[in-house]
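FIELD: query
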Amino acid sequence: MRYTAVRSYRAVLRLAARLEEGLAELQRRPDRGDISITTVIIWVAAVTGALVIAGTIAAVIARYNGNLSGI
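FIELD: result
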């Protein structure tokens, strides 16, 4: 039990130090290159398109699976 407490304490210290470093970096450079809304829209559209294409292919294969088994 003692070692678990020591490891937990060290983990909390490391996490607190990393959080402080991140906050200090944010205060030094407030404009760290945030992602624009256009980039987010493009990524969402690309992922949605890929999922739609994959779903369509899966539906076609499932529907014609018996016909395709002889190929």
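FIELD: remark
The chain has a mean pLDDT of 86.
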